[in-house]
Amino acid sequence: MRTVVLPTVVTLGAIVFWVARAPDVAAVLAAVATVWAMQLIAPAIRRRSLSMEGWASEVLFAAPFVLFFLPYVAWAVLARPPLAWDWTGAVLALGAAGAVYASNWRQLRLGFDRELLEIMPPLHFTTAALRSYQLLAAAVGQELFYRGVVFEFLRPTMGWGVVVVSTVLFVVEHLGNRWAGAVLDIAYVVRITILSTILATIMFMTGSLWAALLGHVIYNLFPAAQVAWRYRVNPYRSSAT
């Protein structure tokens, strides 16, 4: 879905808006381009790690999981979106995260099915740890970016439109998550669209970035728990003695 063409087009758009003296839009597009470009590099790095052995392979395999997080944080540091706490927003975000994930109850249940997991390939500890980290780090990074950075730059001029922009960018990024093992189908797209819209609306109405962070972390906690359970049920054990 997302190829090198998309970050290139977004980068050109940033230049156009900068020339047109719309620095806020240009900054958001430039930020999006760096985030997406970093994720385009990830599959190549992971493929390279498979052709190596020993600690070098482990380090290279882990690199994309670390690198994808850096642009989120870098832009958040530059934009400095305000962190505010709102109890109403937090409760709504938690409820939304649980409800949206519960709508995928069948897959959630299968992820904890011991008999099914026992016939799947054994899971390496490194892989389990990195996947769990990626899920939770992504939740933090994406909220800092899509509900923090994007809102900080665009809310003053776009008003409610920033909710739409934030959600569209969020969904487009997730359509390129094949390298991270995401299962992409219509139901998946609908779920993340609903989740993003709710979190963006909460952010717009309450100004609570903490609420959006909490909701997204809880949402991603479910698949992270599935990864941990799979490792517990069917861990990889070296045949070396």
Automatic annotation (TrEMBL):
GO terms for molecular function: endopeptidase activity; metallopeptidase activity. Residues 134-222 form the CAAX prenyl protease 2/Lysostaphin resistance protein A-like domain. The keyword Plastid does not apply. GO terms for biological process: CAAX-box protein maturation; proteolysis. Keywords: Hydrolase, Membrane, Metalloprotease, Protease, Transmembrane, Transmembrane helix. Pfam families: Rce1-like. It comes from the Bacteria. The chain crosses the membrane at residues 12-38, 59-78, 84-102, 179-203. This is CPBP family intramembrane metalloprotease. It comes from Nonomuraea longispora. The lineage of its organism: Bacteria, Bacillati, Actinomycetota, Actinomycetes, Streptosporangiales.
